[in-house]
Design a protein that fits this description.
The protein folds into four domains: 3-196, P-loop containing nucleotide triphosphate hydrolases (Rossmann fold, 3-Layer(aba) Sandwich), CATH 3.40.50; 204-387, Rossmann fold; 406-511, Arc Repressor Mutant, subunit A; 528-608, Orthogonal Bundle (DNA polymerase, domain 1). Helices cover 44% and strands 13% of the residues. The chain has 24 helices and 17 strands. The strands form four sheets. The chain has a seven-stranded parallel β-sheet, with helices on both faces. A six-stranded parallel β-sheet has the order 8-13-12-9-11-10, sandwiched between helices. Helix 5 links the parallel strand 3 (82-85) and strand 4 (108-111). Helix 20 crosses helix 24.
């Protein structure tokens, strides 16, 4: 079996993502490797595929208990025998796991760095064949990195203690040039293949809002995105508690997470979020490392983080499935004061005295860089990429600043087309349909409803969705339109009589989107854009089935199948095993466990909806 066959058999994918094959081939050839890949780029595949091809065991060193547990669950679901060893297990459980590993029960073992020196683990490592040692979150080994962990310095001593030197591979999402060199040096990588796939996440839309009313912004955003999962990061426990309380009072299904909560409560909060019982979580940066929840549609930073590394990592928890997602930072000058206060109280107990002052200087420099990001008027994406040493060719035209030109705008004509569209709907549809129609969006649902035939269709395609949302809000505030209050609210006509006066103007204070060249793509298409109303209906039925299976198996839903896989099922509408195995993310073991139930659900839906068109190609 080769690498591509392993990818298909166990993980259900036909081809590798950018950079994956290069790294995998290098490791299989027996060469040490260091890969710097953004969150969501598929780092774990890069060591899991070679691990399945090697004759011996692969040891994966990770500081993250939640990541280990998630990865092991996902691997076992895919038919790969894996285990983890960390502080969440009792000594007897660890002994049993090591005993089974010695007997060849596991191909991949995740271990916390603190365990490398334990007597039982040292004894185990001396008598088994270890083909590879993988260091995840490798930036933790550098004291110049943002998450330095002294326990990581034990890794090289562990490797040297082995009878035969294994292949070493290291992975991280965040590393400046200095940290990258530090990782290679400290781990003593031999002639390493260093692969940097780039830091750009094209599906993420970055945006900074300098505002005072942060609570109002958060509440308003959640109300406008009611069915989406999101993370709200706060700098302090006090802010977490306050924001969580405000959202609860608004009836938002939300949970919270910070170090001041006891372990059991924190674990429940994390599980509620992962299992979609509470799709929104308010947390400090103590939450999130290793959380592989694929359908997080937005990350809002209530306060400015302390470094670009932290921001990139935390914001990167949005859109791991590759779908368009929002990364919004709410900035105020008070954030700088809070972060300086927190840095002054940073724990340096494990750091040599001669290094403390230098690290403090670097911490303050990182804070200045982060403040610069919040205040810049240039392209936000390029600011991030420049920091990590990646060359840029020009503004991205896909971030808040690229779409900003703050001024008062006369939107009277645009407002008339928006009102005209609502009139054409006869008050039957909601905000999403109206916006999609006036923007001229290429969506199956709009074709199905016939709004592509409206006079207003595409009339406001020159505006960004954000600008049109501001205009729509203004029209509702001014009473020209109103939104009904039931669960599936629709837009209806209000009092438009003032517009009969030729001198009436609708002036909107906003950031206006700059014009795009006619042939330029306006952004990344959503996978769901191909689905019709019936397609969305089937998608929801498949999600319900996935949730039922997840509860039966005590697994997070995304480990059963991701949203991306369910959408692909709706587009391809498989009728048998061979067709189901052609769906992205359905491997052989996943099909044996769940495939038939999903096939049955699809066939059942088609029988009860004869002739239903589920998707429409572009």
């Amino acid at each position: 079996m080769n690498a591509t066959e392993v990818l298909k058999q166990y993980f259900g994918y036909d081809s590798f993502r950018e950079g994956q094959e290069t790294i995998i081939n290098s490791i299989i050839a027996g060469r040490d490797s260091l890969a710097i890949m953004p969150t969501g780029a598929g780092k774990s595949i890069c060591y899991q595929v070679p691990a399945l091809l090697f004759s011996g065991i692969t040891i994966v060193i990770s500081p993250l208990i939640s990541l280990m547990q998630d990865q092991v669950k996902a691997l076992n679901e895919a038919g790969v025998h894996a285990a983890f060893i960390n502080s969440s297990l009792s000594e007897s459980q660890i002994s049993k796991a090591l005993e089974k590993a010695s007997e060849g029960a596991y191909k991949i073992i995740y271990v916390a760095p603190e365990r490398l020196e334990s007597r039982d683990f040292v004894r185990f490592s001396q008598k088994v064949d270890i083909s590879m040692v993988t260091v995840d979150e490798a930036h933790c080994i550098s004291q110049w990195g943002q998450d330095f962990r002294p326990s990581y310095l034990k890794i090289i001593d562990f490797v040297k203690s082995l009878k035969k030197r294994p292949i070493l591979s290291a992975f991280t999402a965040t590393a400046t040039e200095e940290v990258k060199n530090d990782i290679a040096c400290i781990l003593s990588l031999q002639n390493p293949n260093i692969v940097v796939t780039g830091f750009d996440r094209e599906n993420l839309y970055y945006r900074v809002e300098s505002i005072r009313g942060k609570d109002e912004f958060v509440i308003d955003y959640i109300e406008k995105h009611p069915n989406e999962s999101g993370i709200i990061y706060c700098a302090t426990r006090k802010n977490v508690d306050a924001v969580h309380e405000k959202l609860l009072k608004k009836g938002v299904p939300v949970t919270k997470y910070h170090a001041g909560m006891d372990n059991e409560t924190r674990k429940k909060s994390q599980d509620d979020f992962i299992y979609d019982r509470a799709p929104i979580i308010v947390a400090t940066n103590a939450f999130g490392m290793g959380i592989d929840k694929s359908n997080v549609r937005y990350v809002i930073h209530y306060n400015m983080p302390q470094s670009m590394e932290n921001y990139y990592q935390e914001a990167g928890r949005a859109g791991r499935d590759g779908e368009p997602s929002q990364c919004i930072l709410l900035f105020s000058a008070q954030d700088i004061i809070i972060n300086k206060f927190l840095l002054e109280r940073k724990d340096f107990s494990d750091i040599p005295m001669e290094d403390i002052e230098l690290i403090q200087q670097r911490d303050l420099r990182r804070l200045q860089v982060m403040e610069g990001y919040c205040r810049t008027t240039s392209c936000l994406r390029n600011y991030i990429l420049d920091y990590f040493g990646e060359k840029t060719s020009g503004p991205c035209d896909n971030c808040g600043n690229c779409h900003r030109e703050y001024r008062e705008v006369d939107m009277t004509e645009a407002a008339k087309w928006m009102i005209n569209c609502v009139a054409e709907t006869r008050g039957r549809y909601g905000l999403t349909i109206v916006l999609g129609t006036v923007m001229g969006a290429n969506r199956a649902r709009l074709k199905e409803l016939g709004t592509v035939n409206y006079k207003s269709y595409g009339k406001l395609s020159a505006y960004s969705e954000a600008a049109l949302r501001i205009l729509l809000n203004q029209l509702i505030l001014d009473g020209y339109l109103y939104q009904t209050e039931e669960q599936y609210s629709v837009l209806k006509m209000g009092d438009i009589s003032p517009l009969k006066n030729p001198y009436t103007q609708i002036i909107v204070k906003m950031y206006e989107e700059k014009e795009k060249p006619a042939k330029q793509k306006s952004g990344k298409k959503r996978k769901t854009d191909a689905l019709t109303g019936a397609g969305y209906d089937l998608f929801e039925k498949l999600r319900s089935l996935r949730l039922a299976i997840a509860r039966e198996e005590a697994l997070p839903p995304y480990i059963v199948f991701s949203d991306k896989t369910l959408i692909d099922m709706c587009v391809k509408v498989p009728q048998n095993k061979a067709e189901m195995l052609n769906v992205s993310g359905v491997g052989a073991m996943k099909f044996e466990k769940y495939g038939q139930r999903f096939l049955n659900a699809i066939v059942e839906y088609q029988l009860s909806h004869p002739g239903a068109v589920i998707s429409i190609d572009e």
